[in-house]
Design goal:
By secondary structure, the protein is α/β, with parallel strands linked by helices. 46% of the residues lie in helices and 21% in strands. Helix 2 packs antiparallel against helix 9.
Length: 239
């Protein structure tokens, strides 16, 4: 287990090149994966969004395109000031195309919002880090608390492919191409095997199903994408 402050410092150091790393290490697919997440949201029904671990804002900006009226809004939340600072800088350039998200620095396990503040909670590439920091249970409980009854939580994250051929190619890619991209972009800031190890250590769906249920989500599903290279973890809050 790594402390929350160590993980925060790591991501703060990565912030200047974080977007470029996501793009090149995923061969540009990270954008399609985020669009798929937002596409799972029923537009017109869910209007108040919270993006947990918003980073530099990619997912929050996509969600903002779904906002159609003044009573709707998107909040992008992250524990790294440096990440949010870059999101705010990008917001100036994107604000004319969609409603600009609100930005707030906070932790997923201690959300500064009242009960039932949001219709949907979304997050991209954060679940593994919550697990590494040992705060998955508390974070799920907090997400459930701030959701309205029947609201949904959608976590998108990197996972392990299940077929033998894909699993072999995936491991090879993680051990060769991803570290090469990371070292070129980040230099001494590259956190070594952190990415690979958090993917390998991610708990099975059955364990997450129990955690979602204990937190107050009466429905749970995992939707593998691209053969399981990434997956959507979806929970629906009890009525």
């Amino acid at each position: 287990m790594v402390s929350r402050d160590e993980i925060r410092r790591m991501f703060s150091l990565l912030a200047p090149d974080y977007d470029r790393f996501n793009f090149w290490s995923s061969l540009g697919m990270d954008r399609a994966w985020r669009r798929r997440l937002v596409g799972e949201v029923h537009q017109g029904k869910e209007a108040r969004f919270l993006d947990i671990g918003a980073g530099t804002g990619d997912l929050a900006f996509l969600a903002a395109k779904c906002v159609q009226n003044r009573s709707s809004y998107v909040v992008g939340m992250d524990f790294s000031f440096e990440m949010l600072d870059r999101a705010k800088g990008r917001a100036v350039r994107k604000s004319e195309r969609s409603q600009e998200p609100f930005w707030i620095q906070a932790r997923a396990e201690s959300l500064p919002f009242p009960q039932s503040s949001f219709d949907v909670v979304i997050s991209a590439f954060v679940l593994r880090n919550l697990q590494r920091a040992g705060v998955v249970r508390e974070s799920l409980q907090e997400a459930c608390r701030v959701l309205r009854p029947s609201g949904r939580l959608l976590f998108l994250d990197l996972t392990r492919p299940q077929t033998r051929f894909l699993a072999w190619g995936h491991r090879l890619y993680l051990k060769t191409i991803v570290p090469l991209v990371g070292k070129v972009l980040f230099g001494p800031r590259w956190p070594g095997a952190y990415l690979e190890s958090t993917i390998e250590e991610l708990w099975p769906a059955e364990r997450y199903q129990g955690l979602f249920r204990d937190a107050g989500f009466n429905e749970f599903s995992v939707k593998p994408l691209m053969g399981g290279v990434v997956s959507l973890f979806v929970g629906v809050k009890e009525c």
